[in-house]
Amino acid sequence: MFEFLSNHMRDAQGRLDSTRGLLCGLGAGVAEAVVVVCPMETIKVKFIHDQTSPHPKYKGFFHGVREIVREQGLKGTYQGLTATVLKQGSNQAIRFFVMTSLRNWYRGDNPNKPMNPLITGVFGAIAGAASVFGNTPLDVIKTRMQGLEAHKYRNTWDCGLQILRKEGLKAFYKGTVPRLGRVCLDVAIVFIIYDEVVKLLNKVWKTD
After folding, report:
1. For 33, what's the count of Cα atoms within 13 Å in the CB-facing half-sphere?
2. What's the burial of 95, exposed, middle or buried (CB within 10 Å: 0-12/13-18/19+)?
3. Of 24-28, 99-103, 141-145, 165-169, where does mean pLDDT reach its minimum?
4. What pTM was estimated for this model as a whole?
5. Is the pLDDT of residue 206 over 70?
6. How far apart are the first and last CA of the chain?
7. Repeats (Solcar): which ranges (predicted)?
8. Across 29-43, 44-58, 64-78, 150-164, which has the greatest mean pLDDT?
9. For residue 76, what is the DSSP state?
10. Less crowded by CB within 10 Å, the N or C end of the chain?
């Protein structure tokens, strides 16, 4: 999705500036949230909460999904959609903004300058770290909205207000350190693999 959008927003020299990179990342994040992330994350969070409860009711993945759909309908797999769109949209907007900025800085006046996988990995890790610090509060709200106790909140805004009132500002940054380690590695690896696959495919046919 990012490549599709960026191919329509590059200038005559084939460059993508940071602002357009941010907008393309935002579009990719929103599409990702609606099509993939929201249903998968909702199911994952429900499973985690169920398995840590005193009396788990889901016997396995398929049984759990079947029970969620039977009890709550398809909308049961789309809880916290607004929070997920906000979280995932801002997530990818930050990552691609940072990554595009770093790539443009590294390449200077030559947009076709090759990048070493190690440099791509370092830039990816920096982009991942920026996204963690930038949107962990939205991730916390999203997780609460998708849990088994989501009924306590009227909507995304109410969830955020209740967390702030009852638990304070620090609650929005719970799990930042473990998330930082995972996300930095995750984003670095994804960008390295993507760039290397594109290089490989470009030997067979043009993919950019």
Report:
1. 23
2. buried
3. 141-145
4. 0.76
5. no
6. 13
7. 19-105, 115-200
8. 29-43
9. G
10. C
Name residue, tokens 């989501």: 150
Report how far residue 140's alpha carbon sits from residue 78's, in angstroms, rounded to the nearest whole number. Answer: 17
Residue type, 134: G
Residues in the chain: 208
Distance CA 64, CA 75 (A): 15
**Cα(201)–Cα(208) distance, integer angstroms:** 10
- pLDDT of 146 above 80: no
Tokens representing 103 are 């790539």
pLDDT band of 123, cuts 50, 70, 90: very high
Please, what is the Cα angle at 60 between 57 and 62, to 5 degrees? Answer: 110
